[in-house]
Amino acid sequence: MIEVENIHKSFGDNHVLKGISTRFDKGKTNLIIGQSGSGKTVFLKCLLGLFEPDEGNIYYNGQCYSELSIKEKRNLRQEMGMVFQGSALFDSMTVEGNVMFPLDMFTNQSQSEKQDRVDFVLKRVNLVDAHKRYPAEISGGMQKRVAIARAIVMNPKYLFCDEPNSGLDPKTAILIDNLIHEITQEYDITTVINTHDMNSVMEIGEKIIFLKNGHKEWEGTNKEIFKTDNKAVTDFVYSSELFKKVRQMYIEERN
Ligand SMILES: Nc1ncnc2c1ncn2[C@@H]1O[C@H](COP(=O)(O)OP(=O)(O)OP(=O)(O)O)[C@@H](O)[C@H]1O
């Protein structure tokens, strides 16, 4: 679980995060949504410990980040997996090499232990024949699976994903969303996803927080987002005609 308590972050005069408080539960897929420039990436980077908030605290399973020693922060960092926008794989390494990288860097496991773990996670993301291929030789959807395998290879307690669907066709995007959602539940991970994808919001948004100009404008579940009267949320989420119609149908069905 991650608890966020009144965090503020500025860059010079630009007050980007303005007192955000929320909670992300474990085993749940938590989404951050909001317009471009609303502070989603800065918020995600604060959760990852890449930016230190100017004010406020973040608690990871009850441990206050700012009170941890350097060694404790390093240990916490190893409990975090990250799926970067665009996958961010190492082009010169095979699929297997990419997934093994965190184990090489942060563990003293034997080669056969590492190999077993890599085989296990690649199987879990449904990639069984790609071990020896290079990122350039596989599709965008497969690259995303490799990125997910790499993010979970260290058995993380926290998984952060920045736009995991960007650049994918709608069908592959749904498969990737479902994979992240299943893994979150299966391994009881606290997952936080920064997304623009409204389909993800509807399908896997067990908890959604909507940022507007650095404030938390709204939070709730994918079921509640259908019903909310918050105009900023409805203008943003239902900006497309298709989603407007879906919402209308939902409301009519309920009446
Ligand atoms: N390292 C930085 N230094 C200075 N300003 C920054 C830095 N990172 C982000 N900002 C500023 O913080 C604000 C919010 O940016 P952020 O990237 O969090 O938006 P976002 O909601 O993720 O947008 P998008 O959806 O387009 O990725 C912007 O005004 C941006 O210029």
From TrEMBL:
Would I find Transport among this entry's keywords?
yes
What SMART domains does the record point to? AAA
Q: What keywords would UniProt list here?
A: ATP-binding, Nucleotide-binding, Transport
Q: Which GO terms describe its molecular function?
A: ATP binding
User: Is Manganese among the key words of this record?
Assistant: no
Superkingdom in the source lineage: Bacteria
Residue span(s) of domain ABC transporter = 2-238
InterPro entries in the record, alphabetically? Answer: AAA+_ATPase, ABC_transporter-like_ATP-bd, ABC_transporter-like_CS, P-loop_NTPase
Residues spanning the membrane:
none
Q: Which PANTHER family match?
A: INTERMEMBRANE PHOSPHOLIPID TRANSPORT SYSTEM ATP-BINDING PROTEIN MLAF, PROTEIN TRIGALACTOSYLDIACYLGLYCEROL 3, CHLOROPLASTIC
Protein name in UniProt: ATP-binding cassette domain-containing protein
Organism taxonomic ancestry: Bacteria, Pseudomonadati, Bacteroidota, Flavobacteriia, Flavobacteriales
